[in-house]
Amino acid sequence: MSKLFRGPKFDSAHKMILLAVMYFCQAIPLGYIFGSLPVIMRENNVSLVRIGGLFILHLPWAFKFLYASWVDHHYIPFLGRRRSWIFPLQWVAAVLLLVAAQTPPDTAYNAMFLVLMMLNIVMATNDIAVDGYALDILEEHERSCGNTIQAGARYVGLFLGGGLMLTLHHSFGWKALCIVLSAVVFLLSLPVLFHREIPPVYRKYANRKEQPAGVLAFLRRRDVLWLLPVLIAPTAFAFSSIQMRAPLFVDLGLDSSTLGRLMMHYAVPLGVVGTVATAWFLNRFGPRSFLRLFCVGTILLAIYAVHLSHGGGVTLWEAGVILSADNILMGGINVWGFTLMMRISVGRNSGTGFAVLSSLFILVPLVAAPLMGKLGDVSGFPFLYTLLTGLMVTGFIIAETALWLSRRGGQREALAKVVVEGPLEKVPRR
């Protein structure tokens, strides 16, 4: 193992393997928590109020930017700037999963919730270092592939943690599977432990202007201010639209078992395909073209949801196609978003910049989701999806307007580094 990850030069394949291991280490246990735990709790007659409380476990991921600069600038020199955080936190996560094994959700909910909150804080902190490391080591031409691995890890986590582990739960139970997950996390930490930290690629560019450190300094940058509406406006309500799709199908007559089969057999695998295909699309046609494709796709799906909600029913093939399209677009927009975040955050303070943007990327949908859910309860799905359609069209217009104004306002050169008119720049190997 050490031979694989040690050496004077790291080619792209070694970097991608290393990133895959680090992102899978996060995704598999989190897939179990967010994909399997609600089902396990409901089967054990845990109240919906407590199940709904699991939403709070997302908060460490939304607010990790508050201390990202501290993670960027504090480390143990002989371990390395990123390794100082990554594998020790992975070991802490493995220990917390062993503790969680002793707190089953049906009999020790409060203790389990506290342990899982600590686990999410640890994983979110680890993610700051992993994302920063990815920005440190990836060349421009490697980033779309790196982002594909990052987004694809979500689907692997959902499939293994939220699908396979849920199936095994009926045979082995909560305690045994938490122990298995602890062992998985520990084993996936070993490649990080046994490799020598790769020097950041930005050090090769002597003429690169280093950006000031800190969250506020990052948010004051003009190119970041121009990027934020492009990154957030088209996606905030699109995420809510996709999230509400399964509850809509339940109201239209499909049960959870049927939806689960559609997700595992069609939607999740096609989401992986969409994630991989987006990397090719970005290199071939560029981020702006993909943004337009995403916006048109999500708007058309929302309009069709209005049609279905008025009709009062949905066929299996319609549900399968829509859920698959949702997952393809979600996988793609994550690759798109991570690519833009990487481009604008690269540098010594990359962990801070990426944490700020990724937190804002999910914070707005997290705030919007319960509001949209409440509105759906009060007004029904036809009105909800009509409103979401209008909000997504508005978000699309805001993003296009921001791009147009940035060109007229003299920011074309700065923003072109992030959202380009054509394909991603092909940077030769050095």
From TrEMBL:
Stored Pfam families: Acatn (PF13000)
Membrane topology: Multi-pass membrane protein
PANTHER family: MAJOR FACILITATOR SUPERFAMILY DOMAIN-CONTAINING PROTEIN 3, SOLUTE CARRIER FAMILY 33 ACETYL-COA TRANSPORTER -RELATED
Transmembrane segments: 16-34, 46-63, 84-102, 108-130, 151-168, 174-194, 224-242, 262-282, 289-307, 319-341, 353-371, 383-405
The keyword Transport belongs to this UniProt entry's keyword annotation: yes
Subcellular location: Membrane
Ranges in coiled-coil conformation: none
Record's keyword terms, sorted: Membrane, Transmembrane, Transmembrane helix, Transport
Name the record gives this protein: MFS transporter
InterPro entries for the chain: AcetylCoA_trans_1-like, AmpG_permease/AT-1, MFS_trans_sf
